[in-house]
């Protein structure tokens, strides 16, 4: 839901509150009331309340389904089945953030949930029917990820639906290097996103339908379609030593399937991407591994001399970003910032970037790829993250930070206490 100060997370950032505390239960009634006061569209509020009720009903139905689930085994060799992969996807810590889609907003379509895996009419178990979806997006005057093309494949990887979609607003960036699309592709095209919604919804109406994809929530958001159950390969596979890092589809294709997803510098093919996600699911159904080594990728020199800045508050001035650097820091060659949420501090050499990072006065941690980053508070009261573009020795990936000794002792004490309580019970 969007008010005069944006969405809930945008409102929190505007008020100078950490958006990581997104759960409303963590905030005072005064903060909640202040957000509600920004909402002026009563129809939108009613849509949200109806959606919230459906979310609650779905949560109860999901819990009951998991308790009494009828398992349809797909792989007799391993006993692992598609419903198990649905459950593993839903148990991922990021699932709620990714798949609590804002289908209360206009132009969204929310499809009925099916969690029981049982045909209510026939009373028998329903075999999962897997479809994999992938979308390509362009940028329009009002949407940086507007749907432009989609493809759906079946369990065998065969294309069952392929559509080119004309956005409602004017396209300002076809992202040709990624999508392979240009203005010529849209000449005379009349199909819109609503047509794509109906076509995909018709496929998913089949009993036992499960939607597969890699970071599938991005595709559903572009399609404005809210559907579950899903199997998301980006939540099932992980890099060794990087528990919170999302593996790229191309890296998984290389590490798991032993082939390249596409030739170097080639545009994306949503049919091939969807088929690859389905192939990765079949690998898991046959008992395949879920943990892969992160690729040994060397970061280019031009990126090593930059420090990335993200989480920039809209309207932040260049002066405030430059002001992060203390006196005596290496000279800043360029500030790459156009007013969005991302930017970069560029120096003459990688060594200068490392020295400048070391001098930044902020709390240090690492990001999901194992790269050092610091939280910096700006003069306007907002905060940003500044990180290096490489981990150790210029590698694109590092490792998660090891817990310190105090953390390990506390964790061991908690485990011992839990064991004692279990024994007493």
From TrEMBL:
This is Exonuclease domain-containing protein. GO terms for molecular function: exonuclease activity; nucleic acid binding. Belongs to the REXO1/REXO3 family. PANTHER family: FI18136P1-RELATED, RNA EXONUCLEASE REXO1 / RECO3 FAMILY MEMBER-RELATED. Residues 129-290 form the Exonuclease domain. Keywords: Exonuclease, Hydrolase, Nuclease, Nucleus. Its main location: nucleus. It is found in: Nucleus. One of its GO terms (cellular component) is nucleus.
């Amino acid at each position: 839901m969007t008010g005069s100060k944006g969405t809930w997370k945008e409102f929190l950032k505007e008020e100078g509150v950490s958006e990581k505390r997104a759960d409303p239960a963590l905030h005072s009634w005064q903060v909640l009331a202040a957000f509600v006061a920004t909402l002026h569209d009563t129809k939108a509020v009613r849509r949200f309340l109806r959606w919230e009720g459906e979310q609650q009903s779905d949560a109860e139905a999901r819990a009951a389904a998991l308790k009494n689930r009828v398992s349809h085994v797909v792989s007799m060799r391993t006993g692992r089945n598609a419903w198990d992969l649905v459950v593993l996807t839903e148990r991922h810590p990021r699932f709620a953030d990714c798949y609590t889609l804002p289908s209360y907003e206009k132009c969204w379509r929310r499809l009925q949930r099916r969690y029981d895996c049982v045909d209510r009419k026939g009373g028998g178990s329903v075999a999962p029917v897997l479809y994999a979806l992938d979308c390509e997006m362009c940028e329009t005057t009002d949407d940086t990820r507007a749907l432009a093309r989609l493809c759906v494949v079946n369990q065998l990887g065969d294309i069952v639906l392929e559509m080119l979609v004309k956005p409602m607003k004017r396209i300002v960036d076809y992202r040709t290097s990624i999508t392979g699309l240009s203005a010529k592709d849209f000449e005379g095209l009349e199909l819109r996103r609503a047509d794509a919604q109906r076509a995909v919804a018709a496929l998913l109406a089949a009993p036992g339908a499960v939607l597969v994809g890699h970071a599938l929530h991005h595709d559903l958001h572009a399609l404005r379609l809210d559907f579950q159950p899903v199997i998301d390969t980006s939540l099932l596979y992980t890099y060794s030593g990087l528990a919170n890092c999302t593996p790229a589809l191309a890296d998984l294709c290389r590490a798991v399937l032993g082939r390249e997803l596409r030739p170097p510098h080639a545009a994306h093919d949503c049919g091939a991407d969807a088929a690859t996600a389905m192939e990765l699911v079949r690998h898991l159904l046959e008992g395949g591994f879920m943990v892969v080594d992160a690729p040994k990728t060397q970061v280019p020199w031009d990126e090593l001399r930059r420090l990335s800045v993200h989480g920039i508050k809209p309207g932040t001035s260049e002066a405030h970003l430059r002001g992060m650097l203390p006196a005596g820091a290496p000279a800043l060659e360029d500030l790459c910032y156009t007013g969005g949420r991302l930017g970069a501090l560029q120096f003459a050499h990688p060594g200068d970037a490392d020295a400048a990072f070391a001098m930044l006065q902020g709390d240090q941690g690492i990001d999901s790829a194992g790269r050092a980053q610091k939280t910096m508070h700006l003069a306007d009261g907002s905060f940003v993250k500044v990180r290096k573009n490489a981990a150790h020795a210029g590698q694109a990936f590092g490792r998660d930070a090891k817990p310190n000794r105090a953390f390990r002792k506390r964790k061991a004490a908690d485990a011992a206490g839990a064991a004692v309580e279990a024994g007493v019970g």
